[in-house]
Every structure is written in C-alpha cells, then in structure tokens.
C-alpha cells in the first residue's frame, strides 16, 4: 500500500503542516517532519539520534534547506516557518509526496524534476538522503543543501554559547567526508557533493503545532556550511548525503561493532530497508492491504533497550518511552499477530526479570535509576501475554519458565502489595490510594485526579479473573493444583456479576468506589468481554456491546466517557491543565476499538456477517492512516467531533489492537474461540 498526496493536500502553508512522516532506526531514533518538509513541532527533526537505546534522544539535524539554481535563477524548495513570522514556501514547487517504505518527495521547478528520498538504517544512528535530478533545461542545474544542526537533547534548545567545529576528512568509498562536533557529540557525514564553508548562521523556528497546545513554540538551529552538486543540461544524476552519529557516542553500537564502519551507497541503504519491510509483511501473512501495511507500522515501535539487553516496545512517537502497561497491551498485536514471537519472548523475559512484589515496571530504569512500578494492570496483562504467546507457539518450556513469576504476581495480589492493590473479602481486586493512579486513566495534575478510580476498577477485575483462569490452565505444567485458581475465579465471577452489572443501564459500572463515578459509562468495560476468559453470560455481553456502540463508539476509537455525562469534555486542546482534564473525560482513544471489535465478533460467534460488518467499519481507518502521521494510527481524537488526530501521532497500542482485529477477521493461525480448555 502506497500513500500518495498531491498539491491539493497542501493548498495552503497551514494545510501542508497537518500531516507528517515517520521513519525509525530500531534504537529509539527517528526522522519526522511534515510532508512539506517543515518542522512544525519541537519534537520534529530530520535526524533524531539515540545515544543509548531507546530514550537518550538527541536532535542532531533539525532540517535541511534546499535550493536549486538553473538558468541563473535560484529557487528555495524547502518549507519552514520562522519565529519572526517569515516563511520559506518551497511547498509551492512540491508536486507529490508519497510514503510506502520511505518518504519520497517530487518537485518540479522550471524544467527540473527532483525526487528526494530519505531512509534510516536499522540498528544504527544513520540517516541517508538522496536527490535524483532530471535536468531538462539547456543549462547546468546546481543543487545546494544546507543542514541546520542542533546537537541538543530532545526537547531542549541550543545552549547559550554552543559552538560547532567542522573537520574535513579523506575521501571514503568515493564520498567526500567530514565530521561536525558540538556538545560532546560527533556527527560524521559523507557526500558525493562539494562542501562549502560559510559563516555560522542561526535560525529561529516557530512550531505552530506546539503553540496551539501551550508547549514551547520556538527553537533554534545553526549551520556553518552547505553542500553543492551539479548536473549538466539534459542529464540525470543523483546527489547523496549520509550522516552517522560517531559510534563513540553510541552505547547501542560501540561495544558490539567489531569492524570499522564502511560507507554504503545511499541507494543500497534504501533498497536494504525496503526489502526488510517487505519481509516483515510477508512473514505476517495478512491478506488485507491495510493490515499488511500496519505490520510495517508496528515494526517502528520495536526497539533495543540498552539497559536490559533485550527488546522493548516504545509506547508512541514523538513523546513516549517504553511503559509496562502500554507494552503489555500492544505486544499481542505488535509481535504475535505479526509472527514476531521471538521478539515477544525477549520482551516478556525482560519484564519477568524486573518483577518486584508482584508488580511489573511501568517505566524501565535508565542508568542507575530504579524502575517505577505504579501500575495495577501491567502484571495481570503480563500473564495474559504469556498465555497468548503459549497459544501461538505451544512453547511449554517458556510457559514453565514464566510460571513462577506469574504465581508470585497472583500471590502478591492476594495478600496485598503496593499502591493499595489487594483482594477484598468478595474476591474482587482493589487498587489505588491517595494520589496514586494505577489504571491506564492515570492523569494527575498536581493534587487533582481528573479520573479517580480508586476501589475496584472494572477492567482490573476483568484482568484478574482472566489471570486466575490462565493460572488454572497452565498450573499443570509446573505441578501446581489448578483447582485452587478455579475456585478463586468462580468467587470473582459471582461477585463481579453482582457488583458491576447495572440492569437499568444495560452495562457495567466503571468502578466500585462508593462515589458517583461508579456508574459513569466508560470504555473500560469492553475489556470484560474481549479477554480469553470472561465472566458475563452472552446476553449481558451483547447488551454491553450495544451500549458501548450507542454511547461511546466512533469509527476512529471509543470515547472515554458518555457525552451525556456532565463531566464530558468534547475538545482536547490548550494548556497542559486543560488537556489533562479532558484526557480521559470523553477524549476518543483509538486502541479500545480493538477490544470493541473483538467483543462484537465474539458475541456474534465470528460469523461471516459479523466479519463483513467489521470489515466495512474498518475501511474508514484508511483515512486515519492517511491523516496525521502517514502510515500510523494516533493516540487520541477530540471526543466531540473526532476529525484530527492529537496527542502522540503514532501510538503502539492503537496499531497493535487493530492488528489483532484484522487477524481475527482473517483467522490466520490465531485461535479466537473463548472459554476453551487447553489440551
């Protein structure tokens, strides 16, 4: 699937800022600018490197200024808005932008056609870009590219007095070579063009996207050279430029690289990446073009984590790190649905090693820092992931390896652990206390908890029941008595049906806390239906699905709160406090859509008619993939009218949960029968 955009998609300067691309390197580094090539966010960068995977990110190159001179006239074809209100409007020469495996721009400028393509190499802080030029004029065309550098930690601006030193080097593999140093970082570059020094020049940018949300709205970058290249009249040629963060600055590679780096041609790197992404799609084996593309999108969240030596899943770009809860929700789709079971095993082993008092890390350590364990659901979802992995692979050895960790989780939850997590006398699980928010609706604004869910949250108890049933099924592999877990599960089931069911509203309470929040209609109840083991009879499940569809469903995700609730916020925008108050108070989230569709398919017994309806409803997601970050699914939309993606422009669990739906529709090796017994 190839996403193609034309001039109607950037009718105005502002319209051209609405969509961006994303390419990643498997280390946490990335490249992301708008489709017109502008930096519209502080987190946009042509080259965001990562010195220690996956979260030590540095904005190395903010952008590239591009200019072509032909017939004695110069044309700037890059686009950017500046802090003083001025603009470069090169988008006027942009005829086409496309994205399949790499971003590709096509410009037409007075008889010259320019095709630009960029790529990042996997496992390295390397970015390559080429300009393929067809000069159909009767004079030489001279292309000049000016890189603007920041060399600052992600989210930070250039330091006062920060300087850049540039060194020329001997030609390498047919490339002119050099090095730029600043702030203790060293960036190597290779090009078939000629380097021309110039006085150090700074630019001050305006970030329109950040300005409207109360974030830092300006940032700076500097340059001291440009790179020029010429193509003769009536000729074609390719201008190449390659940047590599010096391995001495990279924990991710410096201790593993045994041979000196050899420069590959940019085209080779491009073809290498395209083949890699094709192989990923073929391995997943989806029939749906959209699902096949989302397989490639899923890969962008997988990263090495240096501190653990294993794989991890980044929650979202451009903001989020690898969080425990997000990982456990995203993993089944990101890894299992795409056939990447070894990566799933690596991630689960890493989490198992960091289990503490029955809790899984919600945030992994960096350096000497201790992990954060402030989550009630990550541990229960870990048990679910182990089970889903076992279903997929029948790997009994791994199930046995993980079982002691799973047993400790259950035991600690039963006797009580941190953050008020413990089993009540009725068998239901309680969680949260004071200012600790331990469910996914975890916003805290100072002393304000916009969504306090202390007590017995509905999805936590659904996860709890599911975990007990899984322990019942896997106990035999470790010589345990599964009937103990079965008895506990039955008690939970009885109490859950009694405490949570609202007959008059045809759905489940959101939480048992003794407050008005208990009866709010929220999307959390959908996970009481979509897990492998659930507690409601079929008729009640059908009523829940219908209520969720009536009150919360949109084609782009589920609302987090019934619009008729007085606490509903229709818009997510403005200063941080305003956004925090709206975050889980009506805002549409994409990822619960996966739980909804799986629940709908389940209550309709995965019938042909049900699958066809879901397929039709999923068609609109193609427009979501085209909007915002091209090729990705976002974090959130406004709750009132979900027309534009917001929050993280690429969210792992959004992609992962929808991939699970596509897998269920195709029944490709997955087993989506519920309440089953293992052989």
Spatial strand order of the main sheet: 1-9-10-11-12-19-16-15-14
Shape: elongated
Radius of gyration: 26 Å
Number of helices: 17
The first-level CATH class of the largest domain is given as: Mainly Alpha
The largest sheet is: 9 strands, antiparallel
Distance between the termini: 40 Å
Examine the coordinates and then state which fold CATH places here, giving the name of the CATH topology of the largest domain. Glycosyltransferase
Q: Would you give an account of this structure?
A:
The chain is of the alpha+beta class and 679 residues long. The protein has two domains: 3-275, Beta-galactosidase, Chain A, domain 5 (Distorted Sandwich), CATH 2.70.98; 285-666, Glycosyltransferase. Helix content is 30%, strand content 27%. The strands form nine sheets. A nine-stranded antiparallel β-sheet has the order 1-9-10-11-12-19-16-15-14. Strands 2, 3, 4, 5, 6, 13, 17 and 18 form an eight-stranded antiparallel β-sheet that branches. A five-stranded antiparallel β-sheet has the order 29-30-31-32-33. A hairpin with a 4-residue loop joins strand 20 and strand 21 (310-313). Helix 5 packs parallel to helix 7 and helix 6 packs antiparallel against helix 7 (378-393). The protein is elongated, with a radius of gyration of 26 Å. The model is unreliable at 255-260 and 669-679 (pLDDT under 50).
């Amino acid at each position: 699937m190839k996403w193609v955009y034309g001039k109607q998609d950037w009718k105005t300067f502002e319209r051209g800022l609405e969509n961006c691309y994303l390419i990643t390197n498997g280390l946490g580094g990335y490249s992301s600018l708008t489709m017109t090539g502008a930096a519209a966010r502080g987190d946009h960068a042509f080259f965001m490197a990562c010195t220690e995977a996956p979260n030590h990110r540095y904005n190395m190159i903010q952008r590239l200024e591009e200019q072509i001179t032909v017939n004695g006239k110069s044309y700037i074809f890059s686009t950017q808005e500046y802090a003083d209100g001025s603009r470069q409007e090169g988008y006027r020469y942009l005829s086409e932008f496309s994205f399949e495996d790499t971003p590709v721009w096509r410009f037409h400028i007075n008889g010259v056609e320019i095709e630009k393509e960029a790529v990042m190499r996997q496992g390295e802080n390397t970015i390559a870009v080429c300009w393929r030029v067809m000069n159909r004029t009767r004079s030489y065309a001279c292309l000049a590219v000016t890189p603007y550098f920041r060399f600052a930690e992600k989210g930070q601006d250039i330091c006062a007095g920060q300087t850049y030193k540039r060194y020329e080097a001997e030609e390498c593999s047919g490339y002119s070579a050099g090095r730029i140093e600043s702030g203790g970082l060293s960036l190597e570059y290779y090009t078939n063009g000629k380097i021309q020094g110039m006085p150090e020049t700074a630019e001050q940018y305006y970030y329109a996207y950040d300005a409207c949300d109360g974030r830092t709205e300006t940032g700076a970058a500097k340059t001291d050279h440009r790179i020029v290249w010429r193509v003769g009249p009536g000729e074609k040629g390719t201008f190449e430029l390659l940047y590599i963060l010096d391995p001495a600055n990279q924990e991710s590679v410096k201790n593993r690289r045994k041979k000196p780096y050899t420069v590959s041609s940019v085209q080779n790197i491009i073809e290498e990446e395209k083949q890699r992404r094709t192989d990923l799609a073929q391995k997943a084996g989806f029939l749906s073009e959209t699902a096949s593309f989302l397989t490639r999108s899923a890969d962008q969240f997988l990263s090495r984590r240096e501190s653990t030596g294993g794989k991890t899943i980044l929650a979202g770009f451009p903001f989020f790190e690898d969080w425990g809860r997000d990982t456990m929700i995203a993993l089944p789709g990101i890894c299992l649905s795409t056939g990447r079971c070894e990566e799933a095993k690596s991630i689960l082993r890493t989490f198992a090693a960091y289990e503490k008092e029955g809790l899984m890390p919600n945030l992994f350590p960096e350096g000497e820092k201790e992990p954060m364990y402030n989550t009630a659901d990550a541990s229960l979802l870990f048990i679910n992931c182990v089970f889903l992995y076992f279903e997929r692979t029948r790997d009994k050895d791994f199930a046995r390896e993980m079982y002691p960790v799973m047993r400790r989780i259950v035991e600690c939850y039963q006797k009580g652990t941190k953050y008020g997590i413990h089993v009540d006398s009725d068998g239901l699980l309680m969680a949260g206390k004071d200012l600790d928010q331990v469910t996914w609706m975890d916003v805290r604004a100072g002393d304000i908890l916009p969504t306090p869910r202390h007590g017995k949250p509905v999805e936590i108890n659904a996860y709890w029941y599911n975990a007990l049933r899984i322990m019942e099924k896997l106990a035999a592999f470790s010589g345990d008595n599964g009937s103990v877990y079965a008895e506990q599960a039955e008690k939970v089931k009885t109490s859950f049906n009694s405490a949570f069911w609202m007959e008059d509203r045809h759905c489940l309470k959101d939480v048992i806390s003794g407050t008005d929040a208990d009866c709010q209609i929220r999307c959390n109840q959908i996970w009481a239906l979509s897990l492998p083991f659930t507690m409601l009879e079929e008729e009640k499940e059908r009523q829940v699905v219908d209520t969720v569809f009536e009150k919360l469903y949109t084609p782009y995700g589920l609302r987090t709160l019934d619009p008729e609730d007085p606490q509903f916020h229709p818009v997510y925008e403005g200063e941080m406090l305003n956004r925090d108050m709206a975050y889980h108070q009506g805002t549409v989230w994409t990822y619960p859509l996966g739980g909804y569709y799986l629940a709908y398919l389940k209550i309709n017994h995965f019938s042909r008619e049900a699958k066809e309806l879901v397929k039709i409803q999923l068609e609109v997601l193609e427009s979501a993939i085209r909007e915002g970050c091209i090729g990705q699914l976002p974090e959130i939309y406004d709750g009132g009218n979900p027309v534009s993606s917001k929050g993280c422009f690429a969210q792992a669990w959004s992609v992962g949960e929808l991939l699970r739906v596509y897998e269920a529709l195709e029944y490709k090796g997955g087993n989506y029968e519920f309440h089953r017994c293992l052989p």
